[in-house]
Amino acid sequence: MRNVLKDYFSFSSRDIRGIYILLGILIVLLIFKKLPVYFVKNTEPDFTQFEKNVLILEKARHAMQEQEKKQSLKGEFDFNRSDYSAAKQKLNPFPFDPNNMTELDWLRLGLSERQVRGIMNYITKGGAFRKKEDVKKLYSISASEYEILEPFIVIRSREEKTFKSTYGTDVKAEKELAINRPLININTADSIALVRAKGIGPAFARRIIRYRDQLGGFHSSSQLLEVYGLDSTRYEMIKDALFFDESELKKININKASVEEMSRHPYIDFYLAKSLIDHRIKSGKILSVEETSTIPFMHDSRYRKLFPYLTTE
Residues near 188 by Cβ (< 8 Å), separated by ≥ 6? Predict the structure, then answer.
């Protein structure tokens, strides 16, 4: 029995050399397996360029949304009346007397420099506008453009001109006439109530309400100048007929709102929304609105305009 076991567990010199070679190979393999740990750096993937590309895409998307928003304010393009739709998107009509318009005023209507030169040549040669249809006769203005401008043309009579000279400016006259009108709450008024204010027609009433809904309400009368197409002349005409109640503002909870929810506000773009979220994550919770005044993309003027719309609760 001992001899049998000896035969099984005895090795020749050739077997021993083979065992040594096999052990050497195993040791070399183990060494090569451990070497990368010491010589290869454990680098994390760099997403810097990817994040830059995402920001570029978001900026482009935001710009496209702003363009679509402006187009929606002017109405959808009617391909059955392409000339009229093109003119509607080009013009920014407001009430005007063609006899008292300056070159700059005509440009503000949305007319081209070439059109304005033709109109000014007509006036320089003694041309006058006694009725609305006289504007239609101008070669510079197309039939579609006249159709859009016609409701805004105001040819003042002699009595109206005398009234104007009494008060000095049209703005003062409008203010004088507005004294006895009841004030309108701009944050709750519907379009029917708004058109009661001198200077606000159905189109501007819709624009004011649309912008009011985007803002979450007005906290300052000067915000009306941000309504598309509403110029300083019309603003001076209507501002004293309106009042505001800041308690009715809809506020954004900056401790809960997402980037998408914040970006819907006209004063918050993608970059500011992301900056607010980043600050919230780093702080755990934003304790006060004042805390946001120093974050990236929150410059002073934006902070002052946005402050009434933010809350931490």
Answer: 245, 248
Residues 139 and 171 in one domain: no
Distance CA 131, CA 277 (A): 58
74 assigned to some structural domain: no
Cβ neighbours, 10 Å, residue 103: 13
For residue 121, tell me if it sits in a domain: yes
Flag whether 53 is in a domain: no
Residue 54 corresponds to which tokens in the numbers above?
A: 């995402």
Distance CA(262)–CA(266), nearest Å, equals: 9
Single-letter residue type at 7: D
Q: Which residues on adjacent β-strands are paired with residue 243?
A: 185
Query: Over the stretch 41-50, which tens digit does the pLDDT of each residue have?
Result: 555 566 567 6
Q: What is the pTM of this model?
A: 0.45
DSSP assignments along 102-114, one per residue:
-HHHHHHTT--HH
User: String of b and e for 218-241 (b: at least 16 CB within 10 Å)?
Assistant: bbeeebbeebeebeebbbbbbbbb
Q: What is the pLDDT of residues 257-289, one digit of tens each?
A: 999 999 999 999 999 999 999 999 998 899 999
Query: Is 234 inside any structural domain?
Result: yes
* Angstrom distance (rounded) from CA 30 to CA 109: 83
